Amino acid sequence: MNEDKIVKSFDPAVMRRLVGYLKPYRIQTLIASAALLLLIASELLVPVIIQHAVDNHIMTEIVSIDGLRRDSLILLLLLVGGLAASFVQVYLMSVAGQGIMKNLRVQLLEHTAGQSLAFLGSCPVGSLVTRITNDVETISELFSSVIMTLIKNFLVMIGVIGVLFVLNVRLGTVAVITLPPVIIITLIFRKRARNAYRRVREKISAVNSFLSERVSGMKVVKIFARETEVNRLFGKRNGELLAADFSEMYVFAVFRPLISFMSTFSLAAVIYFGAGLNSRGAVSLGVLIAFLDLVRKFFRPLQQISEQFTVMQSAIAGGERIFDLLDTEDRIPDCGGECRDLDIADGVSLSFEDVKFSYKEGDPVLRGVSFEAAAGETVAIAGYTGSGKSTIANLAARFWDADEGRILISGIESRNLPLQLLRRTVQAVQQDVFLFSGSIRENIALGREFTDQQLLSAAETSMLRPVLDNIDGGLDYQLTEGGTNLSGGQRQLIAFTRVIAHDPPVLILDEATASIDTETEKLIQAGLKNLLENRTAIVIAHRLSTIRDADRILVLSSGKIIESGTHRQLLDADGFYSNLYNLQFGL
Amino acid sequence: MLKEYRRLLPWFRKYLPMYIPGIICLLVTDAGLLYIPRLTKEAIDIVAAGSPDLQLVLRLCLLMTGIALLVTIGRFGWRYFITGSARRIESGLRSALFQHILGLQPDFFEKRKTGDIMARFTNDMRAIRMACGMAVVSLVDGVFMAAFILVILFVNYPALAGWIIIPLPVLAVLVLGMGRMLGRRTKRVQESFASLSSIVQETFSGIRVFKTLSRESYAVDKFSESNDEYIRRSMSLVRIWGLFFPLINFLAGCTTLLLLWFGGLQVIDGVITPGDFAAVLSYLNLLVWPMMGAGFTINWLERGAASLSRVGELLDAESDIKTENTYGQPDEEPRGGLEVRNLEFCWPESTEPVLEGISFSLPRGSTLGIFGRTGSGKSSLVNLIPRLYDPPPETIFIGGRDIRSFDLKKLRGAVGLVPQESFLFSETIKENISFAADGAPDEKIMDAAEFSTIARDLNEFPFGWDTMVGERGHSLSGGQKQRIAVSRAYLTDPEIIIFDDCLSAVDAETESNILNQFIKKRAGRTSIIISNRTASLASADLIIVLEDGRISARGTHSELIEQKGLYRSIYRLQQVEHERR
Fold first, then answer.
1. Which residues of A fall within a CB distance of 8 Å from B54?
2. Which domains does chain A have, with CATH numbers?
3. Most buried among A293, A462, B60, B266, using CB within 10 Å?
4. Any idea where the ABC transmembrane type-1 domain is (chain A) (predicted)?
């Protein structure tokens, strides 16, 4: 995924696909377009009505107050009509834009969340957030305002040129002569403005990310007394931002005044040549006055059009990034027609048969692992960091698929089970707890229906109950992001409760390595014991007690199982395990 | 409201040489804009009079182009001078604010969220820039244009002027009122957007949990709910926004309508001439912007004032710890043994002491172990030594001198603390290690990397030690982060180094390796090690046991395991586990 993808040219395919989202809003778009035409008509008609009133009712021999009243009323109607039409147009297109945005967001999140962990692991979370929030926002803006205003501005400009030529071909040509330089200026400006804008964005994000890092890492800055250095680095980035700001300002400070200069220049040309043509009777005074108004009308949208192009371009870039994500298909394949069902009544066994796996080609992590965990058995896996322990958990839950060999769940190959069923049966839990902001109840249930009774009894089993009794609101206690308002031990107990409530027949537990004070440790051990009871469990062990209590221990080294047996047996064998044990737990 | 702007006075004074030419440019532009319609009218009158003098028309047209050129330069000028100053003020203020908070101490940052501080650097700065730039422009522009045109209108057409300007104050009030409403609703939309983002953030940070329990649908539902709320708020904004510009156009159109009716009647009655009618029409067009601008100006100024008061709050924040020492000799380097005398410490705004009656003395070159439960005050105690929090005077001494008498920068340079939670910057591993040591040679950095054993992980990283850390780079394990943090402190080779349980995520074998090497290399300088493992403290010269902020026992490892108490009971617990095999 390319974060800073830059759309060099207008990509019609992306635009077509974007416009395709308008389909469900056909009626709204149609009404909005009609309202837009009405709006353009009313804007163009206002000067005409004034002209009419002045020529026919005020500045004639026979003045007519009735006529003036009638024209005033028409003008009022036009104004009210314009007001209504523009509100209807903006409102309906916003409805469409917001609706598109709403569905697109949910679709994107659902799609992305369904991708494999391999894919998700390769995307920085921040960039996914940007896709789903900001990029979608730009697209909504495209629909709700930019497209319609662009169309309106184009129509007005084309309309003006048309009217100019209908009124008088020669004077029309004079008025249009300034057009080529205006187009050239606009094109140059567009490019410069885009570059300047991009540079400003880059510098802003450099300043902001520097700031937010230093603020959240302020303690480190203080500890090492690096204030002067940090301030210097900040000053450098801040200075670069100012320079980028200025170069953006120059672009606008030149373009805007230049366009209005061209407008006045064009006006002067029309007056001079108009006067000449008038003296030869080729142009009437009324037409000349109309031209002055029309030239002004022509230049007004030009001021906006180039900026709207910029918005459109960033919407297209955003669209491209979104479609990139939507078109990514990197899911774990769910079994096709031959899904098998699973009987979990008598417990579930799990076995690996000569499983080989590598994350990166040529860098094998598992080199043929075979073992069986019978229903209800607790198997511990021991080994050094990097021996492939966590990979076993990843494969059993099918976060990745094995390259070779088979993984059997109660004798059925796991690929032949529906993914949902498999994940409900085999749950690979990391003890590195993830809690999100919300109540404890929400964090345990994750949207599944549980009665308070069920939740409390799960909390009882996991030893979370005493914690719940001691905090305000119990299950409804609100956690901050990451659950930082609880202690590490309490967080772990919530994670245990989560597993007990969801009750998977097979549990694969990756124990945390962090050292906890001995009393918290005891609390966790008690919860852990209950957690492992009555289910098949594979524990990637970092804790002495877990290893000792396991029915069997598998020792993993360089992707192969090299020893297996009970704690006692393995120690007596005085092999790799006893060595590892002494190093890791020797006091 | 104006009170807040007093803070900007020095800045305005500094940029006065920019603002004055800017305002002159603005007035030139306005005058030119007022003059061009007159020239047009004159030219049209010549044409209307029949058989025009083309030379005269040409001269008028050239004059018009000349004035247009002047207006162009004027417009460039005010943008350059006024919006340029605004950007400079923004940039300068941002810099000043950053410098100020850099001087604040950790207690300040603990009370505030990073996002909250960031908002003052981003949104508030933008609002201040608008107030210093566009608000000034539209204020000057509006006052000048409005005053000029109103004078012309009321002097020349007193009977008409009263009628036709009726919609204009309505317009200004409308822009102001709706602007406030828009501001409020925009804020609500932004809040909702922020919570939407944080849900996406949480979903993908915790995607593994959702997948494990096959509950992706829960994340989607939660997101969907928040998304609906966001759309609802957006629509309530759109309803006002959709009405805003159309209403402005409508009211501007109403002035034309009033002119057509009342002006038309007056032309018919012969009170004004048709030429006057046309002139008033063009003046009205010029009046719309200043009136609209008045509403915007007030909005900009209000938001700017609110932002200034928020920024001011940070600028006025003071730290309890003063960087400048009040006594002692600032040139002196902290050297020598560490002594703590009868230390009592409470958190600011609290009277309950977290540390009480702490006394110990540590000769230069020896190693202190600190042992205790979570929350017993271990981290508080070591945070006082580099004055991250300020100890009471005359309680902590280095080389016999109160640490408060040293220059703060020198003190912190002499005390290397490795905190429990390792914080790394999103930079390369090498930059992180050499964060505190300017221009350290590569061999030294490599040596520091070897020391914490992070060196042997380097070839696992895609770009070795030039691998980026964090969000956009390689994600490191907890143990790897901790070892980098240890290397970072080690590289500065401080007089006193403190490990605050900072190898907890590293396996036991590696930890003991690091600590063994460490004690060997530290010969001659002082070290403090906090740990939950009695075994890690075994080789310390002195161990103090903290319970509820007091020293409950002290001695060497062998002495402590002979005494009844926490240390022995934990030691036994750990020992029993060891022996049960």
1. 272, 275-276, 279
2. 12-326 (1.20.1560.10), 350-585 (3.40.50.300)
3. A462
4. 30-314
